[in-house]
């Protein structure tokens, strides 16, 4: 199933992703994201995404509110996938979501790295030693095995 979103119109103005100044659309590129299933059918969202021509920053593609930059999934799809990853191995979650485990790992690692970066900003936090260990591992199952008993499970909560 495919949904087409006509949210961006020619002649409309959009904020520059760098400075926020309202600029005219320079051009459009049709992009597609995998969204949550519609009943048992895979659902894809397609929309024209403009690039703006900012006088200060040049031509830049705007960020859509329903997907993070560089992802081919909507935020809601990623949220559902991460909820599954909290409960089962990534390969099993990938089968449930009908995506390859490699693609799901990219999503998981994006959010894990973002969580670790946020924890980095909290030097002196009781979990900072664990953050150093996390840098050397890629699988949340490993993270959980390393997590000291009784410590807050911040990364698990982020995922
Ligand atoms: Zn700008």
Automatic annotation (TrEMBL):
- List residues of the Transposase IS204/IS1001/IS1096/IS1165 zinc-finger domain: 14-57
Q: Which Pfam families match?
A: HTH_Tnp_ISL3, Zn_ribbon_ISL3
Q: Which domain of life is it from?
A: Bacteria
Indicate the segments forming the Transposase IS204/IS1001/IS1096/IS1165 helix-turn-helix domain, all copies.
63-112
This chain belongs to the protein called: Transposase IS204/IS1001/IS1096/IS1165 zinc-finger domain-containing protein
């Amino acid at each position: 199933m495919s949904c087409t979103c006509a949210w961006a119109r020619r002649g409309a103005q959009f904020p520059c992703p760098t400075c926020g100044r309202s600029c005219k659309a320079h051009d459009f590129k049709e992009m597609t994201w995998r969204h949550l299933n519609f009943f048992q059918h895979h659902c894809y969202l397609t929309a024209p995404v403009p690039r703006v021509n900012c006088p200060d920053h040049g031509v830049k593609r705007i960020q859509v509110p329903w997907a993070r930059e560089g992802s081919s999934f909507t935020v809601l799809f990623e949220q559902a996938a991460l909820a599954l990853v909290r409960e089962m191995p990534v390969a099993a979650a990938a089968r449930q979501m009908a995506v390859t485990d490699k693609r799901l790992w990219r999503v998981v690692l994006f959010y894990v790295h973002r969580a670790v970066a946020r924890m980095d900003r909290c030097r002196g936090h009781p979990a900072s030693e664990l953050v150093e260990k996390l840098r050397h591992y890629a699988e949340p199952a490993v993270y959980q095995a390393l997590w000291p008993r009784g410590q807050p499970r911040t990364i698990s909560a982020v995922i």
